[in-house]
């Protein structure tokens, strides 16, 4: 219902602004295209006149028949060349515009906040950025240029027939208006059908993407048949909606065909009457007949393109919706953060993912710059959530979070995230080379720097075993990394970024004892001279931190200097040290 409301609200000026934004950079090509269209329209109108002359000259001026015929053939060939050139430019302009829009939308999606991404599956967004935008290519090329061109042709034809005989002109004008008026209600029937069809296809893409990403669970549970059941339900919906939308589209061509038959009959009857009364020549009747079919063809093209536009309309509506989805995390005025390690402070900060459930309650603490905090607590107590607030994956609902003394809402996301390095529990690797996985496709980082970081992480031996060094392709058919190795790569990424605040979320939990030992020293080096937050389930991971915080149900249960807490027999931390973290916390 909300969607329906939104759809009804896409204003005409949005189409204009879309065209203006994406066609202005290509204005010279657009001007050339318009000129070519004019030439082509002129030729379309001129050619039947030649044929009329030809027919009228058959009886008396045989001598000029051959030149007329040759000129006619020449103009037809010229028209075809002009049309081919125009269609090349039109496709070029439309795909350039479409790709520019695609890039803008992709960037918008990448920048949208985490709550948006939790609510929309990647499959759904891929369908928007790919499927819906492909629909728009039609709008940019065929609709704009063909419809505009054909409309001009239509006006030209009607003006010319008026000059031949005002009664014929009036008849064609009435016919064109009638068809255009009839199309309006048909359009209202089609738009929702097209939209449903696109939505059904987006739902399938989203479903399949989600299932493929959990393929391991599906295999291990033998759940293929259940997946296929849901799959066939979705494909049935596609069948139903696509059938309905395509059949609705047929109404247009049927209306046009019937209209053409009526118009030709009316024009020929009128022509016969005028011929008999000596007011019209046979050639003029032929020209009128030709114009009637040309006019009908143009109406057909216009309505067919409007028909196509219906799908573009549905796409535009869905793209508009996505494009105007505001980012919940808004850049501040870019108050600069101090250089060097960054202090952290939470002031009465509260947060919940949903309004009905608060996850962190009224947190207040300060962590001086250059010190490291070990964050402990039961599963689900809010450790990861606290870390997410630091890099503004989400914003607090009450209170504030300050980094380097600055409220993080006063900085920009770029500034903030540039200064923070994060290693999360789930390391995402791309199907790309080790180099690209380390640098996030940034070519300015040299191979020497990468090798230096690999060496610092004591990964030289592992690196030597890679078949193609930094060019080794990982994931998606390439070299498969263990989760430990993947985490080591994530460490290397943070090393390269050289941040002033480092967050390690369960960073060592997946490492086997040997690998863990391997990078222990590297972690110390990574945290040295920086502020650090280490979320851990292992007490070993918080051995060298300066401060300890224990969270319980989203509140601070204990916070203080690690050594002091360790030696205070009444502290929760010293109790953990004696009993072992696993029994008490997990
Ligand atoms: N994206 C999310 N949307 C809604 N609720 C969430 C989301 N992420 C976490 N939660 C909920 O918030 C609470 C705190 O989760 P959080 O991941 O911060 O805990 P944690 O202490 O890091 O747990 P763990 O030790 O298992 O990683 C949990 O109840 C969890 O279900």
Automatic annotation (TrEMBL):
User: Which SUPFAM superfamilies does this entry report, sorted A to Z?
Assistant: ABC transporter transmembrane region (SSF90123), P-loop containing nucleoside triphosphate hydrolases (SSF52540)
Stated membrane topology is: Multi-pass membrane protein
Name of the protein in question: Helicase
Q: What is its main location?
A: membrane
Q: Report domain ABC transporter positions.
A: 344-578
| Compartments where found | Cell membrane
Domain ABC transmembrane type-1, by residue range, is 31-311
* Alphabetized Gene3D superfamilies for the sequence: ABC transporter type 1, transmembrane domain, P-loop containing nucleotide triphosphate hydrolases
Please provide the record's keywords in A-Z order: ATP-binding, Cell membrane, Helicase, Hydrolase, Membrane, Nucleotide-binding, Transmembrane, Transmembrane helix, Transport
This entry carries the following GO cellular component terms, namely: plasma membrane
TM ranges: 30-50, 62-86, 143-162, 168-186, 251-275, 281-302
Q: Which GO terms describe its molecular function?
A: ABC-type oligopeptide transporter activity; ATP binding; ATP hydrolysis activity; helicase activity
Q: Which InterPro entries match?
A: AAA+_ATPase, ABC1_TM_dom, ABC1_TM_sf, ABC_transporter-like_ATP-bd, ABC_transporter-like_CS, P-loop_NTPase, Type_1_exporter
**One Pfam family recorded for the sequence:** ABC_tran
């Amino acid at each position: 219902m909300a969607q329906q409301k939104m759809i009804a609200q896409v204003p005409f000026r949005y189409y204009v602004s879309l065209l203006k934004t994406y066609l202005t950079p290509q204005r010279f090509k657009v001007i050339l295209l318009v000129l070519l269209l004019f030439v082509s329209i002129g030729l379309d109108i001129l050619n039947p006149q030649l044929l009329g002359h030809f027919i009228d000259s058959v009886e008396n001026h045989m001598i000029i028949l051959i030149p007329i015929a040759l000129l006619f053939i020449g103009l037809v060939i010229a028209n075809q060349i002009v049309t081919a050139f125009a269609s090349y430019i039109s496709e070029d302009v439309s795909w350039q515009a479409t790709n520019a829009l695609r890039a803008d939308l992709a960037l918008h999606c990448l920048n949208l906040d985490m709550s948006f991404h939790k609510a929309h599956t990647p499959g759904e967004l891929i369908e928007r950025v790919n499927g819906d935008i492909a629909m728009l290519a039609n709008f940019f090329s065929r609709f704009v240029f063909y419809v505009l061109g054909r409309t001009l042709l239509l006006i030209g034809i009607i003006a010319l027939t008026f000059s031949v005989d005002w009664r014929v002109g009036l008849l064609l004008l009435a016919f064109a208006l009638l068809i255009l008026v009839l199309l309006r209600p048909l359009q209202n029937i089609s738009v929702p059908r097209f939209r449903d069809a696109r939505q059904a296809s987006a739902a399938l893409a989203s479903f399949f993407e989600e299932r493929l990403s959990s393929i391991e669970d599906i295999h291990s549970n033998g759940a293929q048949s259940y997946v296929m059941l849901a799959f066939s339900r979705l494909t049935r919906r596609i069948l139903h909606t696509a059938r309905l939308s395509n059949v609705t589209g047929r109404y247009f061509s049927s209306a046009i065909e019937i209209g053409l038959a009526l118009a030709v009959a009316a024009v020929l009857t009128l022509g016969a009457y005028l011929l008999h009364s000596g007011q019209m020549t046979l050639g003029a009747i032929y020209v009128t007949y030709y114009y009637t079919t040309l006019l009908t063809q143009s109406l057909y093209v216009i309505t067919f393109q409007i028909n196509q536009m219906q799908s573009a309309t549905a796409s535009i509506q869905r793209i508009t919706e996505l494009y105007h989805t505001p980012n919940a995390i808004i850049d501040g005025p870019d108050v600069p953060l101090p250089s060097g390690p960054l202090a952290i402070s939470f002031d009465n900060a509260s947060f919940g993912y949903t309004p009905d459930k608060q996850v962190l309650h009224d947190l207040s603490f300060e962590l001086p710059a250059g010190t490291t905090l070990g964050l402990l607590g039961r599963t689900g107590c809010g450790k990861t959530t606290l870390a997410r607030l630091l890099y503004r994956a989400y914003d607090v609902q009450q209170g504030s979070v300050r980094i380097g003394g600055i409220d993080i809402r006063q900085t920009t996301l770029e500034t903030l995230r540039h200064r923070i390095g994060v290693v999360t529990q789930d390391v995402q690797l791309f199907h790309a080379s080790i180099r690209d996985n380390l640098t996030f496709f940034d070519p300015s980082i040299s191979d020497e720097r990468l090798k230096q970081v690999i060496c610092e992480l004591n990964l030289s031996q592992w690196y030597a075993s890679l078949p193609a060094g930094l060019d080794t392709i990982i994931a998606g058919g390439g070299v498969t990394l263990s989760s430990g190795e993947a985490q080591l790569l994530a460490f290397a990424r943070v090393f390269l970024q050289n941040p002033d605040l480092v967050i390690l979320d369960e960073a060592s939990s997946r490492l086997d004892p040997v690998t863990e030992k391997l990078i222990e020293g590297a972690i110390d080096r990574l945290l040295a001279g920086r502020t650090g937050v280490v979320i851990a389930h292992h007490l070993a991971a918080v051995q060298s931190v300066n401060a300890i915080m224990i969270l319980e149900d989203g509140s601070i249960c204990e916070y203080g200097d690690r050594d002091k807490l360790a030696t205070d027999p009444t502290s929760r931390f010293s109790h953990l040290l004696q009993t072992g973290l696993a029994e008490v916390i997990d």
